[in-house]
Amino acid sequence: MNKIREIVYYGPDFRNFLFSQSEKVQNKIFKVLEAIETIERIPKQYLKHLAGTDGLYEARIQLGSNIWRVFCFFDDARLVILLNGFQKKTQQTPKKEIKRAIKLMRQYYEDKP
Predict the structure, then answer these.
(1) Closest of 11, 18, 36 to residue 87, by C-alpha
(2) What are phi and psi of 103, to 5 degrees?
(3) Residues 68, 86: contact at Cβ < 8 Å?
(4) Bridge partners of 75?
(5) How far apart are CA 96 and CA 102, in angstroms?
(6) 99 φ, ψ (degrees, to nearest 5)
(7) Among candidates 65, 51, 6, which has minimal Cα distance to 33?
(8) Are 60 and 48 a contacting pair, CB within 8 Å?
């Protein structure tokens, strides 16, 4: 499969989240990330912009009735930066998770050469 974009993670948060999940959930996360890397126009079921944020997106993972979110953003048009993830247990995305992702995104740009 041809990659349209590259995915990298920033800091330890995404890795810590990923490796705290079961193998089944990790595989589902990798499938969604592969779709983001290879599909030209990514469907909203996989990636959705968070309204009211400056370029923050959530990768959407669902396995049965369980839902996970991974926050990310685009740096240049071809690079997707993964920030942090969590299991979603309520209808609304928790504000503290969004704030954490925004803080990580700002940190990324401050660290960037």
Answers:
(1) 18
(2) -60, -45
(3) yes
(4) 79
(5) 10
(6) -60, -40
(7) 6
(8) yes
Query: What's the CA angle centered on 85, arms 80 and 53, to 5 degrees?
Result: 60
In terms of Cα–Cα distance, which of 74, 90, 71 is closest to 13? 71
What are 94-111's pLDDT values in tens digits? 899 999 999 999 999 999
pTM of the shown model: 0.92
Q: What is the pLDDT of residues 14-55, one digit of tens each?
A: 999 999 999 999 999 999 999 999 999 999 999 999 999 999
Return d(Cα 30, Cα 50) in angstroms, integer: 21
d(CA 89, CA 68): 9
3-state secondary structure of 16: helix
